[in-house]
Amino acid sequence: MSISTKVGDRLSYDGELCTVRFVGTLPAWPNDVALGVEWDSPSKGKHSGSYNGVEYFKVRTPGSGSFLKQRKQHDGTRSVYEALVYAYGTEVKIESIQIGGWKMAEIYGFEKLQKMQKVFTSLKDISLSRKCIDRLGSDEEETLTKESLHGLHRLDLSFNLISKFDEVVKLLKGLNLEALNLTGNQFTSHTISSDSVNLSQLNLTMTYPSEAILSSLPTHFRSLHELSLCDNGLTDLSSFVLEFPCLTSLNLSMNQFTVIPTVLSDSTITTLNLANNDITITPKMTTHTFPHIVSLDLKRNNITSWSEIDTLVEILPSLVELRMSDNPIFEGWSLEEVEYQVIARWPTLTKLNGVEISPKERENAELWFLSKVGSGDVKYSDRKTTVLKQKYGKRAQDVHFTDPDIVELEVIDGAKMLNVKVMGSVEVLRLKSMLSRMLNRPFLKFDLTYEFGKFKEHLTNETSLVSSYGFSKGQQLTVEAKIS
């Protein structure tokens, strides 16, 4: 271990990544230099930076800290070019990952270097994930790296040890990448510059960027269309997001937002992901509208009431696609009843929880909804109820006396069996979407079958209603892997 290890450095031990938060001595190790580290995986930690009641460093996540002796062997580090050779230069045996000041041709041999460069320049997608990269490298390595990657479209540098954001900008300068994945690198420093690079998609999940880094993004990435800031502990969003000329997609999932960031009301964002936050919708949010957002993901938040849904309808006038499963509002209602309510309340929606809303399904949802309003089970604006009634004319006059048929099914998936209740007016497509979430199976990877006498039938018509099959109570449906 180099004695130059300093606070902010990133290291890897047996594949587990950490950030150095303290370098010094401990009473227990008077003859050793101690490192206080914060593990990326909190379960690896033993404390929060304290020893015998004395705090030596702070951690972002409680319990994620440990002390290590500096002489403990770590996994080493690589430059980008060394990692490129390690991952893709299969003809070359690398004796050491320490380059020092030697020239690359002397290390690899001129012929092998030429062969590797030829291979590298033909690659369009490169993954250098978990290769212990902590630097761009020497001037010669930087030159070779950029020569190697000039035809590259997508680069994955996730879960490496890069701590200096300006190293990333320096790497990208002169390249023409479409997408860069930096997930799991944690940036502890950044030298502000005006360098601008070409990039369409940037993933900064779990990088914990400082406000200085966030504010520099529009300067560095003028052509950015998609930005992911997942799992960064964010509670608010500053105006830097308004400075991107082309940004249309923003992923803020797995953060700590409690409201939709109001700054986005002035942005050009059309696709917004806020899943896995703690968002509630309050009446005062009607002071801001989000006219450009057409696709919104609010899965696993804290939406508890239908008045919140009605507020969302008001502040998102252009929304056509919504995901909102696993919110408290689902409690006390069946999944399809919640989805029917959302469809009926939200006239602009064309896709809900990943499934297209067909004209027939919208009609069924709105008539069912009118029946619930008429019976007093659901409260809704008189004005909006009148609009729905006018849409259906005489068909809506006595609809409140109608109670929807409930079909009880037994769904068999291998050794699993689920008892599922659905409304007969639900389409097979919506039933499959619901089962996909309940069984954790990809929607497009399974079919549903049932036995009709001696024959096995497939539910192939996904726009047909469940009631059209005449299923009796307890009808068994079998989940089968779809044959591609």
TrEMBL record:
Keywords (A to Z) from UniProt: Chaperone, Leucine-rich repeat, Repeat
Residues annotated as domain CAP-Gly: 35-69
PROSITE patterns noted in UniProt: CAP_GLY_1, CAP_GLY_2, LRR
Pfam families, sorted: CAP_GLY
Superkingdom of the organism of origin: Eukaryota
One GO BP annotation of this record: cytoskeleton organization
PANTHER family: CILIA- AND FLAGELLA-ASSOCIATED PROTEIN 410-RELATED, LEUCINE RICH REPEAT PROTEIN
This protein's name: Protein PAC2
